[in-house]
Amino acid sequence: MFLPFCAPPSAESRRQYQRHKLEMMKYWRDSLEAHLAALNAAISTVEQQIGQEGE
């Protein structure tokens, strides 16, 4: 008697898992890119403010 979780995964279920994994990683990348852009803008603003104070 074999239980379903003991059976090797089918090729289709593996493809579905890989697609899901790819979409998740793309979402993480896009989120990190948005955070990085915001951080870069904040750094630039502070640098400009520091530069204006020195004048």
Mean pLDDT across all amino acids: 89
Question: Over all CA atoms, what is the radius of gyration?
Answer: 23 Å
What is the H/E order?
A: H
| C-alpha geometry | rod-shaped
Portion of residues in helices? over 70%
- What fraction of the residues are assigned to beta strands by DSSP? under 5%
Tally of contiguous helical segments: 1
Q: Which structural class best describes the helix and strand composition?
A: mainly alpha
Low-pLDDT stretches are none
By DSSP, the count of extended strands is 0
Q: Kindly, what is the distance between the CA atoms of the first and last residues, rounded to a whole number of angstroms? A: 81 Å
- Give a short account of the largest sheet: none
